[in-house]
Design brief:
Helix content: 40-55%
Strand content: 15-25%
Organism: Variovorax paradoxus
Catalytic activity: ATP + protein L-histidine = ADP + protein N-phospho-L-histidine
Shape: globular
Protein name: Chemotaxis protein CheA
Largest sheet: 6 strands, mixed
GO cellular component, one term: cytoplasm
Structural class: alpha+beta
CATH superfamily of one domain: CheA-289, Domain 4
Mean pLDDT: 79
Number of strands: 23
Pfam families: CheW, CheY-binding, H-kinase_dim, HATPase_c, Hpt
Amino acid sequence: MDLSQFTQAFFVEAIELLAEMEQLLLDLDVEAPDSEQLNAIFRAAHSIKGGAATFGFTALTNTTHVLETLLDRARHGQLHLSAPMIDAFLETKDALQEQLTAYQAGKEPDADRVAHICGVLQQLAMENNHAAAPAPAPAPAPAPVVQAAAPADEGSSDGVLVIRFARLSDSECDLLAGELTNLGTVLTRTRSNDQLTVRLATTCDPDDIVAVCCFVIDESQIDITREVADVAAPVVAVEEPVVQPPAAPAPAPAASAPAPAPAGAKESSSIRVDVEKVDQLINLVGELVITQSMLTQAATVLDPVAYERFLSGLGHLERNARDLQESVMSIRMMPMDYVFSRFPRVIRDVSAKLGKQVRLDTYGKETELDKGLIERIVDPLTHLVRNSLDHGIEAPDVRLAKGKDATGQLLLSAQHHGGNIVIEVSDDGAGLNRERILAKARQQGLPVNDAMPDEEVWQLIFAPGFSTAEQVTDISGRGVGMDVVKRNIQEMGGHVEIHSRGGQGTSTRIVLPLTLAILNGMSVRVGSEAYILPLSYVIESLQPLPEHLHSITADGHVIRVRGEYLPLIELHRVFDVAGAQTQPTQGILVIVQADDSRFALLVDELLGQHQVVVKNLETNYRKVPGISAATIVGDGSVAFIVDVGAMPRIQRAQAASAAALAGAARRSTDALAS
């Protein structure tokens, strides 16, 4: 039977099992390994092997079989673990990941790579062969059952399992029955409506059978009990009553029998849904919210007395739509642990290569972020972590000479702050070198001076091609990366802040919106156009007095706000809007902050504050400078969401263009006059 419809489920679960295996290996104490951890690692490898064999992934099956053999010896105390052995297991995990990727792409894995990793594992097995012993001993209990099962060869290790499946389709019945023949000898097979009962003589554990069947159906549809033969009458198989939940406390087999029940209940409480379906649901709910806003706005002209019941129902609809929107948005939220769990391996490998000792601490792993953002934040965080390891944290002898602990600390934290999430990467290393950064900036021709505040100096490291590393390594030093980090964060609607103290360490903070699908915004009017300012940028709004305005050029102004002079950016000039208010004292100034700089935006009127559904402008039209996205407001019209961070850059570009045109016109006039 064609299994292609189930392979995607196998790939997803196998990737999760590999991630779990890696984390367990990193946490394992080689001197005193925890038996539960070893068993969990073994089960992960065994489950992947079972699924790979089911779908005919030979290379994956062979590699996991060799790994599983070593892990089985380790969990039974027949193999002494060591740091190089853990390194080999982690390398195997990487190889398995590569094989999965190849099979997902419909290709065969690299045969040389497969042979290499299997050779590494087999070499480990031979080196530790003196401590190994045949492994059939751990299962003496099923011995009497096997004799009742069938005249099988491995009578001392086989057993008869009664496997009951519920809520099956015809195709699932045939598929499962066929797969069970690969796991043992099917003694009987009974079909009743949507249920299937199979008696199977097998050497596999119930957990292994569940792991294979779960690639086809849900665990809650599977019930497995062990059939135990009576010693006096070995031919008659009698099911142990203790397997059933109503039974009283019973012999040893009962301890393992109830285990699948709670696991099944837990599994049935969650389902896998394609992310495209979730996005479609979010878009539909967004359209519903827009329609509800249009109804609410249309109802403002109705008589509240004559239409009391209608307006009351409309109020209920608004609250329910908001609750529905928040509930649906929570589906896309994922914990930061999805990102943080990747870094123990990165830190282990990089610190070993650099000869440094580093301890990783994480806080706020349960903090949630939109799935679209959480996948895009991985690369910037990886670069920041590698930079801290390479440039920040010193070598053990240097740290000891400075009176520090030989082991450096790297902290990854995440927390909610208003409508944003703040992710921080900090270390207790040497900190940034102000003099070296300024010298490098002058060398590259950047406009700097010794009076620059530290915050502006630290931002220089985000310049393209900027690096103060004395030598280029395979980890960093080429000046490529930090500018990409900043650009990627800005594309996600966030910004980066750096704080550093010499000899004490550096902290890099990434501030991001919680989601890109909805936005808390302030709607403003400029001429006849409506614009949305993201509320996370807005500090305050005010109407200035004439004495607070100061001209610095013919078209450039600054506004004094509580002793601070802020640049004034006129939105009607940026977007070339006709009929807008041109006198700042007659309009409204909205004070905003972006990239550690504050400035004022001149608008005609504040329309209100509300949540808006973000629509990608590039998908539906094209990229527009100064506009990050669009939305549909209550009256059905389109409002543009302003890219606040781009405003100063656009104003400078327009000023430079105007100056160039004025210069060209002046030269032309002079030429004509002469």
